[in-house]
Every structure is written in structure tokens, then in C-alpha cells.
Amino acid sequence: MPLLGCIADDFTGATDLASTLVRQGMSAVQVIGVPEGPLPEADAVIIALKSRTIPVAEAVAQSLAACEALLAAGAKQFLFKYCSTFDSTDEGNIGPVAEALLKRLDGGFAIACPAFPTNGRTIYQGHLFVGGALLNESGMENHPLTPMRDANLVRVLGRQTEGSVGLLPFGVVERGTGAIRAEVTRLREGGRRFAIADAITDAHLMALGEACANHALITGGSGIAMGLPENFRRSGLLPARGDAGALPEVGGLAAVIAGSCSRATLGQIGVARDHVPTLELDALATPDAAALARQAKEWMADKLSADRPVVIAASAPPDRVEALQKKLGRDAAGALVEEAMAEIADALVAAGVRRLVVAGGETSGSVVQRLGVRSLRIGAEIDPGVPWTHATPDSAPEGMLLALKSGNFGARDFFLKAFQ
Length: 420
Ligand SMILES: Nc1ncnc2c1ncn2[C@@H]1O[C@H](COP(=O)(O)OP(=O)(O)OP(=O)(O)O)[C@@H](O)[C@H]1O
Ligand SMILES: O=C(O)[C@@H](O)C(=O)CO
Hints:
Elements: E1 4-8, H1 11-23, E2 28-32, E3 44-48, H2 56-73, E4 77-81, H3 94-104, E5 110-113, E6 121-124, E7 127-130, E8 133-134, H4 153-160, E9 164-168, H5 170-175, H6 177-189, E10 192-197, H7 202-211, E11 217-220, H8 228-234, E12 253-258, H9 263-273, E13 278-280, H10 289-300, E14 310-313, H11 318-328, H12 330-350, E15 353-359, H13 361-371, E16 375-383, E17 386-391, E18 400-405, H14 414-417
Parallel strand pairs: 1-3, 1-4, 2-3, 4-11, 5-10, 5-11, 9-10, 12-14, 12-15, 13-14, 15-18
Antiparallel strand pairs: 2-16, 6-7, 7-8, 16-17, 17-18
Helix pairs in contact: 2-3, 6-7, 10-12, 11-12, 12-13
The chain binds adenosine-5'-triphosphate and ligand LCNOYBR7.
């Protein structure tokens, strides 16, 4: 029976969360989509949805179905994981999904805390910073699907919910667990259903986690999960685990697929280009998924080698993304590239790739779905928030390693160091 039942709105976010829990001593399995059969055994089960940018009603329905599966398995506490940059539009999907889960779990109140200080996401007075910049000046204002143009999360979540949104301010969080609990009671009694929780350091996240030990639902980024395993240990439910993140050895060819257009991913492609064969597809010049996949298949024919990875990217800077979106519409542009990347990933695995890095949450979603991966066991981290995972898709039943890299995560040499 899982102690913690998690619902993640994208696949890279789910691995990020799973990785945090493994680091804190929980075993974790990521399940792809709402499971039809029984859930795998683990201290934490993370159901990974691709619900960040789908229509609100579908996101709510899928999240509730995931919640039912976790309830049926006996999960004791629930976590709704969204992006540390709060990726969403004014319509949702964070607010509506959080409201629906809160209602189903009869939770009354939940905190909302996307902070992830290790990766530079901090929240002060309800404002989200990415590194030294406000969210709306961090590059996220140009995100292809969820441009973030307001850093004030109390306002952003307020636009997405009917329940009123308050703030758990720095001054309270800094004073620790007791002060947080008292403030939550005050917020709840004052009619708030959500509060953005300020957090600048891991110590703040640990204090928030401890203070929320008896909350039915917690919402946030992976950081907010840091303090939760200790709650279960303290209450005697979580035994000490040796190495919660041990994975089988896997050899085989190595490749990277990138569909993220984030600054970090563009930088990582720039570094990889100087060291390993790198194909940069031009979706604007060839707005045709099948043709893009064909180009990649022809290219890879004599590039795959046991000595080093290859990189295939559709990623483009904001002006080129915008141009393709103007031509096709935002969703169609994203879907076209995702379709091409999924097809390319399939071809890579067919050609013997068994260690595959995928950059971008939506991109990872389409790749993992195309490969027919049903669950991922979480292993060691390459960089904060990005672990290697082990899967046994139908096309590689002997097992393969996948690393699903959140767009903005990873050091500049990530596409090289992942394989070292
Ligand atoms: N050249 C391009 N033109 C237009 N859209 C593109 C292009 N390249 C990729 N895309 C689309 O941009 C979107 C990028 O989203 P994705 O979630 O994969 O990356 P991300 O948002 O940077 O990562 P994360 O969600 O992990 O933060 C995808 O839908 C992808 O298909
Ligand atoms: O929280 C993050 O930034 C990531 O786990 C993510 O969700 C990226 O898609």
C-alpha cells in the first residue's frame, strides 16, 4: 500500500518528484497514465499524467481518476505535483485540478508551493523567482505552451480558482513548523482554501512538509515533498531503506531527444553540438511530422555508435517557435513536433538505443506513450530533479534506461554527463 499517492501533471515533473522522494529514503514508482490494473508496490506511487496543457475538464477528470486509483490502493496522503515555474494559463489547469482533488479528499485547505531552491525557484511574498529573476522575466514569459507573465502566484492561482487564495508569508515560514500550523489554522478559519507558501531554502520546505503532516492534500513542486518522508518515518510507517534508488545495469546505444525550447535546453544543445553528432531539425522550414522523422531516421543511420550519444533536437529560439505557432496555431505546432519526436524515439529504440534522455515534459509524455512505457522505477540523479529511470517497454523488454529532463533543469553539459 503506498504511503504517499502523487498525481503529476507531466512526466518530467513526475520523475523529478519521484527522485526527491527516493533521495529522502522512500522507494518510488512512476506509473504512466491512470493505471488499469493494480498499482506497483512502492512507498510512493506517482501517477504521471500529461494534463498540464489539455482542456481543463479533461485534466480534472484524469486527475480525479488517478486519485481514485490511489485511494483504492490505500494511499494515506496525496500530493498534486505541478511545475516549479507554475506552468499554466489563466484557465488552469493547476487551480481547477487542485480544487477538484481537495473536494474529493475532503481536505478543506491545501498549500500551494512550487519552490525548488536547489534549482533556483524561490517564493517570496507570493512572488516566484527563477534564479535572480521574477518568473515573468525569466524566459518563462516565452514558453511555447504556458507563457508565464505574472510572478504573483496569489494572483495567478486566484484567477484559476473559485476558492479564495491566501499567503503563508516568509515571516511565518521562517519561524518554523509551529508558526506555520497556527497560520494555516487562521487561513482556513478565515475561509481560504489555498495559500501560496513562501519558501526560499530547503529548511523552509522541510518545515512546511512537517507542518502539513496531517493535510489530506499538498500541492506544489517536487521541493515540497522533501519533508514528507520524515513524517511517515516519525509515525513508524516508513522503514529504513538501504538504497531506495538502485537500478539494473543497462548497456546499449545512447541518444538524446530534445523538444524543450527552454533557455537551459538550448544551452545544453549548444554544448553537445561541439562534442557529439547533433541534428537540429527545423520544424518551421519543414512543418510536417512525418518528414521531420524521416530526416532524423536518415541522419541517424550512420551516426549511432557505442562510444558516445547522438542528439536530435527540434528545439528553437522564441522567434522561430512563435513563427511556427503563427503559421499552425499553438497547440498544433506543439503536437506536430511532439509527434515527430515520438516517432524518432521509436526509431532510436528499434535501432538499439537503450539509454535515452528526453528533454521537455510534453516531449517526454509523447515519447514515453509512443514507446509503450507503463511504469518507471526511479534511480540515481544525474542533476537535481533528473534521475535515470528503468523501464521495460514492449520494444525493449530486456529493459532500458530513460532520463526525462525537465526543460529548465540540468547543467550545461547535461547531454554529455548523463552518459558518463
Ligand atoms: N521548433 C519548435 N517550434 C514550435 N514548437 C516547438 C518547437 N520545438 C518544440 N516545440 C514544442 O514546444 C513544446 C515544449 O514543451 P516541453 O514540455 O516538451 O518542454 P518544456 O516546457 O521546456 O519542458 P518542461 O515541461 O519539462 O518544463 C512541445 O510541445 C514541443 O513539441
Ligand atoms: O517542477 C519542475 O520544474 C519540473 O519537475 C517540471 O514539472 C517540468 O515540467
